[in-house]
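Hey, can you fold this one?
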Amino acid sequence: MKKTLILLLACCACIRSQAQAPEATAAPEPSATRTDSTLTFPEPEFIGQALAIRPDNRTEQLVQESLAPRHRSSTGQKLFGIGKDHIDEMTLKGAQSPVRFRKSDGIAFIIRVPDNLIDPMSVISVFRFKVKKKMRIAEYASVGTFGDQQRNTLERQPFTSRRFGSSSYLIILKDVQEGEYGITVDALGSLNVSTFGVDE
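Sure. Predicted structure:
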């Protein structure tokens, strides 16, 4: 009788403790995609600066480097008298930018401009550098042997865009390939460029 009473009391205590224990709740899963409703990123502090949006929703400011203009003749013109007579280029020291992305990252930037009511294609240039002898080079104008001039010959990278905040654009690169890239805000007339690189 005594053993039976002890067993009954133990069962009651066990049932009571289970009833009082809170149910475990599953933690919400992180969002797999970023939509406009979740874009709560800051604008860059100064006009001309660019913030990269990383896949984990962090922002990272791109490094700004100073372009050095260069005027030269092409090798073909020097050797054979054909090709481009004069080439205007912008150069950067070093073969790579310290800021790196992968092609699969979905590369996007927030870029501060003087006025985000202007068509972004007329304000922002995203272009690809050629890498030669530990130097990044972008050709922007040339004059041919017969005097034909070509301007704005940068290897531009297409992007989609929309206004962001009070004075910025959000741009998303399209069909980006491996290489070294630069971003300039053309309205400033500055030789500063925000740089990044894309790896496989």
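DSSP finds two helices and 15 strands in the chain. Let me know if you want another pass with a different chain boundary.
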